[in-house]
Amino acid sequence: MRRSESEAIETISIALRHHRERAGVSLSELAKRAGVAKSTLSQLESGEGNPGVETLWALAVALNVPFSRLVEPPTPSTRVIRAGRAPRLRAEHSAFAAGLLSSSPAGASRDIYEIALEADESREAEPHQAGTVEHLVVVSGRMRSGPTASPVELDPGDYTTFSGAVPHLYRSVGGPATAVLIMEHS
């Protein structure tokens, strides 16, 4: 089996189990709703099956989730784009380039803040409501930011995103720091 196939099957396995448990249904019940054999579903959840599109489609419908949720790998909970590394689109008639750091999901709203920290200071934030995502671009200085359990070090121009629904921090490193913080609410 090619590596890409094994990765796809692992993604499907994890997604099926996650969405079934989230829906609060047993293997037997989901198999019945989707019209597939319980043994087939059990194999898929354990990463041993090789499902066809029709089987996955039936499972997605039975779970009431888009088909893509079963086959797309999950995005990491923390993502970093280093300064100047975002894919850039250049204007044809001027010296202008834009790099998309993050698009706004449907139904989300965003608040934009400028934050400043004195030298070697930190702000530890309590979790916000579920579904909050934070986007941070360092403007000057250096910072450590992200979930309290796994912050990342950022230089000027670096971008990171992480869940705001967990304890998180902003810490200046070696001097004062400023950043643009965008809080996305869904």
Quick structural gist:
This protein is α+β, with helices and mostly antiparallel strands and 186 residues long. The protein has five helices and eleven strands. The protein folds into two domains: 3-71, Orthogonal Bundle (434 Repressor (Amino-terminal Domain)); 79-185, Jelly Rolls, CATH 2.60.120.10.
Describe the model.
The chain is α+β, with helices and mostly antiparallel strands and 186 residues long. The chain folds into two domains: 69 residues, lambda repressor-like DNA-binding domains (434 Repressor (Amino-terminal Domain), Orthogonal Bundle); 107 residues, Jelly Rolls (Sandwich). The chain is built from five helices and eleven strands. The strands form three sheets. A five-stranded antiparallel β-sheet has the order 1-9-6-11-4, with no helix packed on it. Strand 2 and strand 3 form a beta hairpin. The two termini are 39 Å apart.
> SSE order in H/E notation?
HHHHHEEEEEEEEEEE
Per the principal axes of the C-alpha atoms, what is the gross shape? elongated
Radius of gyration: 21 Å
Count of structural domains: 2
Provide mean pLDDT, rounded.
86
Work out the strand percent: 25-35%
End-to-end CA span: 39 Å
The count of DSSP E runs of length 2 or more, i.e. the number of strands, is: 11
- For this structure, the CATH topology of the largest domain is Jelly Rolls
What is the helix fraction of residues, given as a range? Answer: 25-40%
CATH architecture label of the largest domain: Sandwich
What topology, given as strand order, has the largest sheet?
A: 1-9-6-11-4
* Low-confidence residue ranges: none
**Would you identify the CATH H-level superfamily of the largest domain?**
Jelly Rolls
Reported for the largest beta sheet, the result is: 5 strands, antiparallel
Top-tier CATH class of the largest domain: Mainly Beta
Structural class of the secondary elements? Answer: alpha+beta
Q: What count of helical segments does DSSP give?
A: 5
Protein name: Transcriptional regulator, XRE family with cupin sensor
Keywords: DNA-binding
GO molecular function: DNA binding; DNA-binding transcription factor activity
Domain HTH cro/C1-type: 16-70
